[in-house]
Design the sequence.
């Protein structure tokens, strides 16, 4: 019996197949507000988590804030940037029942996506739509989860609603415009250039206005009776005007503060119009809430990619090593749709 | 054949039974900001409406605002004050299917309750709980419809929630405290006197504070992690402090502006806490929405009166002729619970 040789062979097989003995991985780390690829430890995989071998990771505006020290990760989350990825399940925790090794998934992450491997709760990874490649797949989770959560679960968007997307050419905007159209809603976009507005109109928005013009006069013109839903990443700068163009029983969802946080509010107008102001973030939500969001996304939205009713909007995919350049494109607001880091 | 005499007899019978030939009624009218009982015409009864012979009518704070010219009735509503009543169905429009002559009902009204007769859409009148007399019955519709709409339908109140009622000893407050208890929620009240606080504690509130003390420190003490729902008739004066004591994913429902309308709002706090601010009124809602509210009230709340889990809180009932005195009690904030005008 050549037991020693057999064991060595077996060990080599496991090592190659699962990289289990290689406990290091490459990840992008923040060094003095700059991004660098470094060696670090593999993430710990909890009993109800899966380990994903990352194929591509999406950029989000929150990554820039985190890089600059303005958006610390929630307790327990990875310190590594990255809120979404596509990839292959590499291993599963002992309580995992819904995923198995080799599954091709896209995943919503509380952090850690800018790395070769990332761990997340099993239900935050959902089956990748067949028609999408890894780069396209990585462009979906964060923006579609954000749109689904805020438009449908928070604002109760329903067929026939008129919906405004500020920053309409962003990842969230381009996802929102397509979702609105797919679910029978009319949308208006604001964006920084005519090129971006035209892009949104081609995606299905019915009207739009350049930021340097009077956006709110154009919204009134588009819907004299007011909007039903406004998804707003701007905050204070647009706040009072948003409420003025919001219709009876309209819902304003605040998902960002690019235009500041401190506002005035006329409660009388809010009451008479029976409006709702909803503050929302997705990252710090509970595991259970994210399970719900990803389940609804998997059931209601992902099939529309395979049916061709939705399409991923990828502005540019760059290799992992060009993460600094990828960030600079977003920082300059040059992108239409998503910027992706490819690890393939 | 004594046809002429028969006809006269028949006519007299109809006249006595339905008052159909007497097209006048007594109603309380506003004359130079004062209330006077006057003769006026019977209300028109539309095809989908019922005519109610009013037995008792509830007072609401909105009546005072309307009397003072600050709260005009919504389009199409009676100019006569009065947002709720108890009474007997006297006649029905030709399309009415759910009510018949002689039914004992309580009704939510867009106006017209301070009168011998009032007309309203058939589904806005619901069966009076058996255990309640006319005066008690008239104390229910407006405050319970307001609480049901705002706590359950708007704020999504659920078992285990911690709920704050400002003006806890008001009609709405005393209804809200009881509803919260009946549906497994913990409540805190603010009110103008120790007597009022004690009354609310006896009704089922778990804590309270007098308005002249630091209400918000007491709320923090009652629930360090914050409130889930705040039902607020005060507005600006409490607004920022309300948001500070509102917990993660808390809902602030603004239903009145006794403390002004113009406020400041920190959108960053709203986002991080994932809070909702909801402006709400009930009077101007659609007939269909009010149908839904009254159906839910009839199904979920009215049975609790017959079961003894809820009780009407009537501060005082006065005859129709003492409407001025009734208003003066409410204007002086002397009441705990409802003030009722009796027409019996």
Sequence:
């Amino acid at each position: 019996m050549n037991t020693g040789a057999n064991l060595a062979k077996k060990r080599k097989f496991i090592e190659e197949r699962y990289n289990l003995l290689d406990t290091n991985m490459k990840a992008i780390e923040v060094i003095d507000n700059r991004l660098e690829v470094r060696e670090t430890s593999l993430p710990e995989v909890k009993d109800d988590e899966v380990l994903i071998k990352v194929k591509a990771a999406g950029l989000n505006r929150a990554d820039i804030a985190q890089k600059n020290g303005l958006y610390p990760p929630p307790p327990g989350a990875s310190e590594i940037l990255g809120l979404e990825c596509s990839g292959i399940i590499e291993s599963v925790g002992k309580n995992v029942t819904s995923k198995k090794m080799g599954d091709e998934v896209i995943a919503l992450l509380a952090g850690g996506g800018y790395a070769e491997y990332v761990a997340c709760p099993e239900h935050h990874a959902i089956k990748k739509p067949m028609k999408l490649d890894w780069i396209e797949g990585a462009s979906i989770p964060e923006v579609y989860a954000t749109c689904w959560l805020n438009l449908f679960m928070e604002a109760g968007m329903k067929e026939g609603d008129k919906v405004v997307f500020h920053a309409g050419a962003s990842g969230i905007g381009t996802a929102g415009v397509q979702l609105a159209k797919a679910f029978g809603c009319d949308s208006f976009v604001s964006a920084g250039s005519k090129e971006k507005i035209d892009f949104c109109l081609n995606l299905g928005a019915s009207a739009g206005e350049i930021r340097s013009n009077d956006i709110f006069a154009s919204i009134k013109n588009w819907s004299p009776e007011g909007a039903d839903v406004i998804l707003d990443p701007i905050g204070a700068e647009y706040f009072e005007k948003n409420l003025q163009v919001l219709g009876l029983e309209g819902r304003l969802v605040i998902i960002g503060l690019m235009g500041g946080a401190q506002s005035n509010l006329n409660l009388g107008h809010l009451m008479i119009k029976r409006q709702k102001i909803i503050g929302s973030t997705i990252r710090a939500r509970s595991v259970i809430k994210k399970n719900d969001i990803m389940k609804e996304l998997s059931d209601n939205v992902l099939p529309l990619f395979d049916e061709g009713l939705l399409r991923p909007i990828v502005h540019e995919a760059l290799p992992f090593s060009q993460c600094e350049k990828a960030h600079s494109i977003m920082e300059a607001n040059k992108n239409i749709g998503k910027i992706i880091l490819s690890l393939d």
